Records
---
Amino acid sequence: MNAPAARDPITGFNVSGSGIKIGIISDSFNALGGQAAGVTSGDLPAGVTILKDDFHLNSIDEGRAMAEIVHDVAPGAQILFHSAFNNTYSGTGLEPSGYSIATAINNLVAAGANVIVDDVALRTQPAYQLDAASMAIRNARNNGVAYFTAAGNAGTEAYEGIYTPIGGTGGNSKSHDFKSGVGQDNVLDLGTIAPGSSAVVQLHWQDPYKSLNSASTVQSNFDLYLINLTTGTLLLPSQGASYLFDLDDPVELAAYTNSTGVAQSIGIYVDQTSGITNQRLKVTVQGTITDDDDTNSPTIFGHQLSPDGVSVAAHRFDNLTSVEGFSSRGPGTLLFDEDGNPIFEILDVPRLTGPNGGNTTFFGSDYAGDPDAFPNFFGTSAAAPHVAAVAALMMERANDLGISLSVSQLYQLLFDTAVDMHAPGYDYLSGYGRVDAYAAVAAVPEPTLFTAASFVGLMFVRRRRR
């Protein structure tokens, strides 16, 4: 990203993120107890403010790995951390609609964060509506806080289409036809699951979320089932399958862990148990879809859709020309506003691309393509903190110049200085391109140039298609 050149006190701009607070939202920070060692080695700053940590059996301190990246790029910045999980939610049952993430965002804003970055998503968040976390991002931006979020690691492993019934599997259920061409096919093939491996599937459909507005009307109900493709039978909980059905919101989840000792071929089918046809369905998989139907669909959902934040795709540190194959793709589609009223809007996501695969002291595994033995952190979770730290360098530069740089102006400078990677201009793989820290900091205008006229047309605007 040319960050060392941007920080250089002689040939660059002598910035380090000093005076800027960067809030990180992830799973945990010091559940594994490595914070002190990170400070001693110089990979973390002293005095990280932990507003809330999370200590569970599966806590992996990904937030601390993100903090190591932030400290590499902006070593003078102060770091705040807040877990995305197990925060107060006024409802009952499964935490829906990004409320837990919203709590973390609001608390970091209250703690004085200038920049916030997260790498989290909840499978229950909406695909076609902005949620509570998105509203918190809007509040953060209105308070002068720049927001960056990992776009996700689902590539194009999704199916999206209009519900088309082709018959029932029992009761009044009617299966969805996944076939995009001639013929019918009510099964979406997820391929072979190796022993010990898992697949997770989420189904969203075109209805507003009641957890966002209790007055919203859910017109349909769908059920998502996993099947054994060899036997054609339903996978039961006793066989490693788990289901989350009949929530108040238009989402269903299914998961399978192969504990049989031999590879299993699995697929899904979707039944409508009540409601109307001509509704849009989206199936997203943590794994691989091998079906020959039209499955190369957008995979970004939840608060990663927020037009008030910047969703970040990933490129490998030694490949500056293309995004990672796993990096989630856009565009996003809004079919409902925050109150559940029907709309139609296409959102440009992702918006920027940052590097991944860099070193950490503990997170990930060593990549054969680099010359050292340190573990390498891959995923959009690693790309987003790189970009957030560049924003801190830009903010310090603005402070040094004595100018006020709005969040909209900061975003636009990042877009304008990004390096094209795929199609010229904006595209749904890399957004506006990969971030160049030196160019971004250099673009912060001198006070004599920073006039109202200099930023005409520079406000951050989402492209709308209605």
---
Amino acid sequence: MQVVRRDGTKTGFNISKIRAVVNWACDGLDVNSLELESSFTARFREGMTTNQIQNNLIDGALSLCDFENPDWRYVAGRLKMWGLKKDIFVTRGYGYSTTEKDFITTYPAWVSAQLLTHSYDHRLSEYSMEDLTEAGSWINPELDKDYDYAGAVMLTDRYLLKYELPQEAFLTCALLLALPEEKENRLSFAKKVYDAISQRKISLATPILANLRVPNGSLTSCFIVAMDDNLESIYREITNTARISKQGGGVGVNVSSIRATGSKVMGKDNASGGVIPWIKLLNDTAIAVNQGSKRSGAVTVGIDSWHLDLPEFLEMQTESGDPRRKAFDIFPQVIVSDEFMNRVQNNQEWTFVDPYEVKTKLGYDLPKLWGEGFNVAYGQIELSLDKIITKYKKVNAKDLFKSIMRSQ
């Protein structure tokens, strides 16, 4: 019986090769390799591909994984990594006889090829071929065995470049991170960084691991923006959110300054739609502008606990209610003060107010206040209820906190 290899050629079926791969994947783990062999469900047939055999082994390992036998997820992860290496060996024309050591020595040539195709940042060319040869000797492929299946899938599908292996990615990141060092110290610094990354003593943020080694990649992970209470600011920050997301960043957006539902707009009563319509635009932006095709945009939206629209904000991701005022793809957050938590603890009342009315009538820009300054302003606002401040609502602070926790 013949099986089809990754390069399209055929070879005789050899069960001992499958057994060798299974034993390698199970080595050192608390599993029985015979269980995986017996779980092989595919019918061996003429023309079966080696990819089909590998995928069946992965499915078998995952099916054996449970609470009592968690190590099977590492077996599946090793098989995933093994398949990746075989695919890349064939793509690069190394052939099936290539060993890990043979592969390591090709790192400098691989870097050069990447530079020619503009896949790697051009700054790698600041290293000599001798430097790259030494760096390539640090690569330890055995460390790829430490990933479970979920980690292997995430690493290969989200972070690696086309035809790139994990240790190459980590080494290239280390070399680029070392560039600001003095020339005589670069390699020793890069070695320390590579060892730390590859041994998972440190974890690189998504934009760094995904973007550091590609041209013009953004290296910043997280951004914070705040919308002021006007159309220009709102749409400017939505645009900024889209641009940040495009480059792989996550965005925290504060909407506490936006006037509440039913507030005045251009002197007209009950004209404002509140914060929810703008949050919905942020929600759709997170969907539309993904993070460099790596994942959906990550947008968290924060609102202060005193904002009059907070109750509707807490219902924003429930299934009931007007679907036009729902936002299921952002990550909601409630910004709380010490004063609020004190009232929760003491089972006291809490007051929702409209930031627009507070600012226009009392002059307090409430979202920008914190600590004692907030306490003083909030106390003055509550003393002004009915006399000056007319748009408000009182609730029990502990009940509100329970609502927040239910929403979470």
---
Amino acid sequence: MNLIQLPDRIALSEPIEFPQIEPISEGIHRPFWSVMIPTYNRTKLLVEALESVLAQDLGPDEMQIEVVDNCSPDVDVEALVKEVGKGRVSFYRRPFNAGQVGNWNTCINRARGHWIHILHDDDIVLPGFYSRLRSSLEKEPSVGAALCRYIYMDEEGHWQYLSELEMRTPGILSDWLERLGPGVIQCPAVVVKRSTYEKLGGFSLQLEYMFDMEMWMRIAVHYPFWYEPKPLACYRSLTSISGTSALFKSDVPVTSSYRLLVILQSYIPEKIAAKLIQIHTEKLRIFSIVVIRHNISQGNFTISLNQIKTLLKCDPSFRIIKGIVGSFIWGVKKSFTN
């Protein structure tokens, strides 16, 4: 197998492990859905997320709805949840900030339902999300996760464009592990069976970025994915205020890309590993160049240079060097045309 070898300061510093998810104790009521909403310092957009769920509430017997606050210092999230939820939405505040990954794992551990939907506090679901997916999932007990087509919207909630159409009719996705890549899936469109998390573990604490993509790939190795082609969720692109925007100005997207490859190599079946690692190496190379080009386009030359240094330490291949040179030529041409 052709593995990616990383320098010590880029590679994972500890063995690859995934947080354990304990099964639900016997005797506890199990609704079909657990809608878990992780949040941090969010107000107006959290209200929109909650209202989109409450508009299709199936009742407490069939749907757990809970907001999990990552110890927000500036917002009284509990008061907001009480006002909007009117007693229907439960609330849990972490005693300390565990980071985004830690908070998502808290959501999984607190979920009682057979199926878990982690809905971030700035995204929404559209009418029919839960009923339509449930009707399919009850007929296909073999699947470990499901996703629907989704809509990209801007900060103000205006629809921009649709995600790619993966299949024209509902059903199990074929060759899904090969087709996954950066931006293929956004979280509001995904639901996961709790027993899947119990078997495979929670989100990796060794990734600051792409930890969700790693999870979807880990699931795809072990379980079929169901696909619903009707757009039933909206992903909000918060270009100016999101944590993702801040991460793009650091080395994190680059280092996480190559750490992701190391993690993938730990569990992809050997008979298909070489092919899949090659496919995903190319996808993550392209993604890293896109991040660098984005910073060049924004005039963040010091940031892009630091990212280039990190990328060359991770992957000093001809393709990367060619991509870097091409990005600078593109940036120079753009500056002259502007």
